[in-house]
């Protein structure tokens, strides 16, 4: 019985990694669509987000099956419970990548965007998502803690972008352009979605620590 349970648990780990890779791809493609003003790629991100929703349902079904048909010991129970929590955050990461793509379909990119560290912010959030899942599979509490600490990097990038956009909005040379305020708000929303992705990665890392230690500390 234990070998059968271990195989099912390994399948759970594999599917979590696959879902994490889906999230990483969506973030990457949404960022590329933004930076290159690629409308076709933005629409592809919007269409592909449904795959993450489907993966969430599959993993949820597997977790419930493990809970109902097996007799997991305390450590296994923590892993399964953490996985159920993690997939909720991963699904929301997919939603926010989709939100970024939707903004791309409604805006015209200019050189202002290239002056902002949005690429660095997207790379930072991708790293956090990837490493939080790695920490779960490897049962690596130190890596999970590093993900949590790295959120400060994302928060700092958000503050930089917000400050730059405030300067852009208040620049009198832009006042003749009636759309410049809306453009700045769109970019601020994009940065906020990246910041939220980082927050969800932190949540995942916190559940990883719970799966290892049995304690969930915000």
Shape: elongated
- Determine the number of helices (DSSP H or I, runs of at least 4 residues): 7
Question: In sequence order, what are the helices and strands, one letter per element?
Answer: HHHHHHH
Query: What is the average per-residue confidence, as pLDDT, rounded to a whole number?
Result: 89
Percent of residues in helices: over 70%
Percentage of β-strand residues: under 5%
Quick structural gist:
The protein has 218 residues and is mostly helical. The chain is 85% helix and 0% strand.
Q: What can you tell me about this protein's structure?
A:
This protein is mainly α. It has one domain: Methane Monooxygenase Hydroxylase, Chain G, domain 1 (Up-down Bundle), CATH 1.20.58. Helices cover 85% and strands 0% of the residues. It has 7 helices and no strands. Helix 1 (2-36) packs antiparallel against helix 2 and helix 2 (39-69) packs antiparallel against helix 3 (74-104). The radius of gyration is 19 Å and the shape is elongated. The model has no long low-confidence stretch (mean pLDDT 89).
């Amino acid at each position: 019985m234990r070998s059968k349970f271990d195989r099912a648990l390994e399948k759970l780990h594999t599917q979590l990694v696959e879902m994490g890779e889906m999230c990483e791809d969506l973030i990457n493609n949404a960022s590329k669509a933004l930076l290159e003003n690629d409308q076709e790629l933005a629409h592809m991100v919007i269409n592909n987000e449904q795959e993450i929703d489907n993966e969430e349902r599959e993993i949820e079904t597997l977790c419930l099956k493990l809970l109902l048909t097996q007799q997991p010991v305390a450590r296994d129970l923590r892993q399964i419970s953490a996985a159920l929590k993690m997939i909720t955050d991963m699904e929301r990461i997919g939603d926010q990548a989709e939100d970024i793509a939707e903004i791309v379909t409604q805006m015209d990119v200019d050189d202002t965007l290239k002056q902002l560290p949005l690429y660095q912010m997207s790379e930072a959030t991708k790293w956090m998502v990837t490493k939080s899942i790695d920490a779960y599979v490897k049962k690596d509490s130190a890596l999970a803690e590093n993900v949590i600490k790295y959120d400060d990097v994302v928060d700092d990038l958000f503050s930089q972008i917000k400050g730059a956009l405030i300067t852009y909005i208040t620049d009198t040379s832009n006042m003749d352009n009636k759309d410049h305020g809306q453009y700045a708000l769109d970019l601020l929303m994009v940065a906020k979605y990246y910041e939220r992705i980082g927050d969800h990665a932190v949540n995942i890392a916190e559940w990883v620590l719970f799966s290892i230690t049995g304690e969930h500390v915000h």
